[in-house]
Design brief:
alpha/beta, about 130 residues, single chain, Rossmann fold
Length: about 130
């Protein structure tokens, strides 16, 4: 199986550590970069990762930034990690280009599965794990 190149983006170091630990040990997933600020993220997506795993708080809950990222790089599939439960926010994230939504309460085991599914061109929502 080909490697899936992933960029992690979160402004909270502990959350970033959680993302990393969820992926570590996965033979088919490689972390290209870990970003704690928007400048780092802008640089990292220039390397055309397969998947961007980003916390909605990193985007400042302004999904226009997500739309811009997706528009600049059609190869990269985006998964948004969020604590938002409201349907409007989730629908907006998808309309802005997110191919996956993961709730912050999810099991870390779901993250590699979501990455693989989104990379294969499918959508992911945490209810897919049920």
């Amino acid at each position: 199986m080909a490697e899936i190149d992933v960029v992690l983006a979160d402004d909270q170091p502990l959350s970033l550590l959680g993302m990393r630990s969820a992926i570590s040990g996965q033979r088919d997933i490689r972390i290209l970069a870990e970003c704690e600020d928007p400048h780092c993220l802008a640089e990292a997506v220039r390397h055309h990762p397969d998947v961007l795993l980003v916390n909605s708080s990193f985007l400042g809950d302004q999904l226009g930034a997500l739309k811009q990222l997706v528009g600049q790089n059609h190869k990269t599939q985006v998964i948004v990690i969020t604590s938002h439960q409201d349907r409007e926010f989730l629908d907006t994230a998808v309309r802005c280009g997110a191919r996956g939504i993961i709730q912050t309460e999810c099991s870390l085991d779901e993250i590699p599965t979501a990455i693989r599914k989104v990379r294969s061109g499918q959508m992911w929502h945490e209810r897919d794990a049920a």
